[in-house]
């Protein structure tokens, strides 16, 4: 009997899953000791003071660049190496300390073009850069979408901030890189499997969906895209639509046994017609189209798929559907969190969380497909064993029939040989006896001739 949960057990397991998934949303790592927090800044655009962290949307700032001026007072110049940490930035940052440009310690790139989706940026401060007394720090944040964000900068010893940064970097970048690489590898394997077995379209749809999602998540880990910013943003938005489109076909056709052609045609035509606009519209129009048309429609299809899975899982109580619905619940949780951030109801502190839900989706869906593939292999092996047994039984029947046919042919040959011998006897000995009988009846015989004729007939 296939594994399944009753409704109470399933709902309890879903609540536990959502509680575990919500833990990253509550991350609040303690700051290192002896760290200076720069919570007040002077804005270059207005000259007013602002409290950090600063979310441009919270004060209705509509510019695309903001300059933050900080004054850092030190009683004496530090003797050991210090560092400056920007815990979270959206989207580009340029930093100067006492009019000296700073470079992020891990990438020697042009910071004016670097895209940082809430990644921690650690800047080592060389000896002599910090002076006794007043030090002037300038941080310039750029964001073409007018949704800039700067968390509270931290200044302290390099050793203390480096360990804090490594912990944050593990979650905000390294984990995403692992997820993207895993999705890409699994997607390519599934596509290769589909190319070998074109009739198993389910693997091709899953591989295409995972590849689109991996390509979409590149936007959160690639700091210097190979494409211009406008086309890179369009590519990121397009791949999200590609993921939802492939997932719609995937779930409809193979996981709940439905074929809702109207819905499939709707999402397919919307993606095909909207894709050129993403690359042709200028950046301001692209933001409007993306925020108010593309994303709402795509997310609506995603919510529809979740409700579809949840409804069928509730009605059928199938383990696979229940597991998929729980995975969808994590995606809805993170997607709802990101939507509230995008609408300005939640701060940018953690950034977007939906890319992390790919880990659970990858694990669950891949396991289900591997299990399906294993079941298909078992079924094929069972069919092969049954076919071997049938072939063996048929071979035995054929061998028995061949033996019977051989015996029948031998009997037929023996019978024919008997008939031939009988004819020979009839034609030879019979003729001689008839001739002898004729001689005797005619009175023209002698004892000697009769004896010779009988001896000859006996010899024949």
Layout of helices and strands, plus pairs?
Elements: H1 7-22, E1 36-37, E2 40-43, E3 49-51, E4 54-55, E5 65-74, E6 82-86, E7 89-90, E8 92-97, E9 100-101, E10 121-125, E11 133-142, E12 149-150, E13 154-157, H2 158-196, H3 201-217, H4 229-255, H5 261-280, H6 283-316, H7 319-342, H8 357-441, H9 447-459
Antiparallel strand pairs: 1-13, 2-3, 2-5, 4-12, 5-11, 6-10, 6-13, 7-12, 8-9, 8-11
Tell me, briefly, the overall form.
rod-shaped
- Measured distance between first and last alpha carbons: 84 Å
Mean pLDDT: 83
Rg is 43 Å
Largest sheet entry = 6 strands, antiparallel
Any low-confidence stretches, pLDDT <50, length ≥5? 107-113
Question: Order of strands across the biggest sheet?
Answer: 3-2-5-11-8-9
Care to describe what's here?
This protein is an alpha+beta fold and 460 residues long. The chain is built from 9 helices and 13 strands. The strands form 3 sheets. The protein has a 6-stranded antiparallel beta sheet with strand order 3-2-5-11-8-9, with no helix packed on it. A 4-stranded antiparallel beta sheet has the order 1-13-6-10. A hairpin with a 5-residue loop joins β2 and β3. α2 runs antiparallel to α3, α7 packs antiparallel against α8 and α8 packs antiparallel against α9. The chain is rod-shaped, with a radius of gyration of 43 Å. It starts with 6 loop residues before the first helix and ends with a helix.
